[in-house]
Design goal:
Two copies of one chain form a homodimer.
Chain A: H1 7-25, H2 32-39, H3 43-50, H4 53-79, H5 85-92, H6 102-113, H7 118-142, H8 148-168, H9 175-190
Chain A binds a DNA duplex through α3.
Chain lengths: ~200, ~200
DNA sequence: AGATAAATTGTCAATGATGACAGTAATTAA
DNA sequence: TTAATTACTGTCATCATTGACAATTTATCT
């Protein structure tokens, strides 16, 4: 009887536009006007589908976490075939792929903006924890002789370099910096073999 | 004849309050009201000393770069006495000291917000480059046998971990994460000895 | 065709942020 | 004491952002 609901589809579309704006302008800079323009809809629609500002932020947070988790799962799939530290680096730092930095930029913007709200704070931390878990697990599989603490430390370091790479992308750093960061990650991974 | 100028002193005071607000709320969230409240002055004074919004942002950018450069110089002084990778980590990751994460948070917030303005972009990149230079130089002194490319890659990695540590500070991560990040940096530095 | 429920748009009031400037207070030199 | 210059405050106009809701359109089922 009723017109078919577009709630899921439109919500996704708007949240992705929201994510883009937050990555570019920060949370406070991502006004409803900008989000609406980015999504190609009129502003009142944002409210219709996502509610008021606070609810929009909550929804964005959940969306970022969901996308991040999806990325972690995807990485886990790829890393299952990794046979060396070099394989890991090539998978995580591939440039030919369409890895856009929006996600981690939005993740960071949210982390500084909602870090005082325990529920969102934990959700963001958990999403990062999942990625760290994937990476740590892969390292333990590849280097079973190393301590799990070492695997964990290396995973934290590699993740830091990945995050930093996306952060820097807004400054359009020279290609050499990207190479150096990738090499840094490779060195860190290589240190898993030592001793 | 004239009343003595407080321009330098007040400007510094206001810029530091501005830096604090940008670290906490992002560039767009650091409204003049908030900055004025943080600095303990009335809003019209901001305009009196720093000009309009764009000029305030430019001034903040210069201020952040200046403080960052000062930190790099200070680090250079301390690193001059470092005799091992462990010394470097202890100096850069010391917790007893009053290293507050505001600076790097504001640096990041600015980098995503003004990354499209070549002058500010270059200023921010140069400030990071100075820090990288200090760290790379120290590594070359400590490990003269390693290639300079390797020193550079390790410097990039350690810097990434430092930046990430300050980013995460807003999420109040468990102490174990901090330890793991520090250990990751130490592993990276230790890899300078290999081969 | 008509009923129903959702999608979409138009519009206005309220609040928030910035720009601008007049006006007052304070400090120093002559 | 007075002139000169700066520090500081009060206040208003303007624009941007958000919240809210009425009104319209569209798609589906009976």
């Amino acid at each position: 009887m009723p017109r078919p609901s577009l709630k899921d589809q439109r919500s996704e579309q708007i949240l992705d536009a929201y994510l883009t704006c937050v990555a570019q302008f920060g949370l406070e800079g991502a006004t409803q006007e900008r989000v609406a323009a980015q999504a190609g809809v009129k502003r009142p629609l944002l409210r219709h589908y996502l509610g008021n500002r606070d609810q929009m932020i909550s929804a964005l947070c959940a969306h970022v976490v969901q996308v991040f988790d999806g990325m972690s799962d995807e990485a886990a799939l790829g890393l299952a075939y990794a046979g060396s530290g070099k394989d890991i680096v090539e998978l995580l730092f591939q440039e030919e792929a369409d890895h856009d930095p929006r996600l981690l930029l939005a993740w960071q913007a949210l982390s500084v903006a909602v870090g005082d709200q325990p529920d969102k704070r934990d959700a963001l931390l958990n999403s990062l924890e999942r990625f760290l878990g994937v990476l740590t697990g892969t390292l333990q599989r590849l280097f079973p002789k190393a301590s799990s603490a070492k695997a964990r430390a290396v995973a934290q370091g590699v993740t830091s370099i990945l995050v930093n790479l996306d952060s820097l992308s807004m400054l359009a750093p020279p290609q050499s910096w990207r190479d150096e960061l990738r090499d840094g990650a490779l060195l860190l991974l290589t240190s898993m073999e030592a001793q």
